[in-house]
């Protein structure tokens, strides 16, 4: 989580605010990741990671994706996610085209 949180435009949150505005801690086996600062919605990030980097995530909404770890998760899985996010951040920073799978371009 710390490594991911250091990537430009990417945030890995340890807590969030629920619908009532109360702070809630993220369960230790989950990573709540946002690329909003890089201009990428949660749903778009989910599609990009799945299609371009072959990374499966548990959930996505307008703002976040959720990655889940388990007993079978290995260091290389975290490294692959971090490397993918680093690559994506660099593409955004260098204004390289990012195609959102399933979107229509005009």
List the helices and strands and how they pair.
Elements: H1 2-5, E1 11-13, E2 15-17, E3 23-25, E4 30-34, H2 42-53, E5 59-60, E6 65-68, H3 75-93
Antiparallel strand pairs: 1-4, 2-3, 4-6, 5-6
Structure description:
This protein has 106 residues and is of the alpha+beta class. 33% of the residues lie in helices and 19% in strands. The protein has helices at 2-5, 42-53, 75-93, and strands at 11-13, 15-17, 23-25, 30-34, 59-60, 65-68. A 4-stranded antiparallel sheet has the order 1-4-6-5. A two-stranded antiparallel sheet has the order 2-3. The model has no long low-confidence stretch (mean pLDDT 89).
Which labels suit this protein?
single chain; 106 residues; alpha+beta; four-stranded antiparallel sheet; two-stranded antiparallel sheet; 3 helices; 33% helix; 19% strand
Quick synopsis:
By secondary structure, this protein is an alpha+beta fold. The chain has helices at residues 2-5, 42-53, 75-93; strands at residues 11-13, 15-17, 23-25, 30-34, 59-60, 65-68.
How many individual helices? 3
Strand composition percent: 15-25%
Radius of gyration: 14 Å
N-to-C order of helices and strands: HEEEEHEEH
Estimate the mean pLDDT confidence. Answer: 89
